[in-house]
């Protein structure tokens, strides 16, 4: 089973996503991570904008973020697409194209 975590960028401390609408989204993240063979997925809360969660897939922190409303508004129908985009950013980085991403 994949491990899903939320952390604060400021100090690395872990916190729980306890919003009632987040449960379905987290279940979809879990399913996506297992299907794509990621042992863990971490969402890092931006130090300057608490609404941004930067995505880490496996050991790779990415230049890709997901808005907190994905979890707080229960947007489970879009989270898999967003994680697919994050995985694409990971592949671009591995191929050396991250310098072109803003």
What does this structure look like?
The protein has 102 residues and is α+β, with helices and mostly antiparallel strands. 36% of the residues lie in helices and 27% in strands. The chain is built from three helices and five strands, in the order ββαβββαα. It has a five-stranded mixed β-sheet. α1 (22-35) packs parallel to α3. The longest helix is centred in the last third of the chain and has 19 residues, at 76-94. The protein starts with a strand and ends in an 8-residue tail after the last helix. The relative contact order is 0.18. The mean pLDDT is 90.
Task: Explain the layout of strands and helices.
Elements (H helix, E strand, L loop, with lengths): L2 E6 L5 E2 L6 H14 L4 E6 L6 E6 L2 E8 L1 H4 L3 H19 L8
Parallel strand pairs: 1-3
Antiparallel strand pairs: 1-2, 3-4, 4-5
List the total number of helices: 3
Task: Write the H/E string, N to C.
Answer: EEHEEEHH
Query: Could you give the distance between the termini?
Result: 33 Å
Q: Cα-atom Rg, whole angstroms? A: 13 Å
Q: Give the strand order, joined by hyphens, for the main sheet.
A: 2-1-3-4-5
Sheet of most strands: 5 strands, mixed
- Helical content (DSSP H or I, runs of 4+): 25-40%
Structural class: alpha+beta
Please provide the count of β strands: 5
Taking all residues together, what is the mean pLDDT? 90
Q: How would the global form be characterised?
A: globular
Strand content bin = 25-35%
Provide the low-confidence segments as ranges. Answer: none
């Amino acid at each position: 089973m994949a491990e899903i975590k939320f952390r604060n960028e400021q100090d690395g401390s872990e916190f729980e996503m306890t919003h009632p609408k987040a449960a379905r989204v987290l279940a979809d993240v879990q399913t996506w991570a297992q299907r794509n063979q990621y042992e863990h997925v971490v969402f890092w809360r931006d130090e300057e904008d608490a609404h941004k969660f930067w995505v880490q897939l496996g050991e790779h922190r990415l230049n890709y973020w997901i808005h907190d409303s994905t979890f707080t508004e229960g947007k489970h129908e879009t989270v898999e697409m967003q994680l697919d985009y994050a995985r694409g950013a990971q592949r671009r980085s591995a191929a050396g194209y991250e310098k072109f991403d803003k």
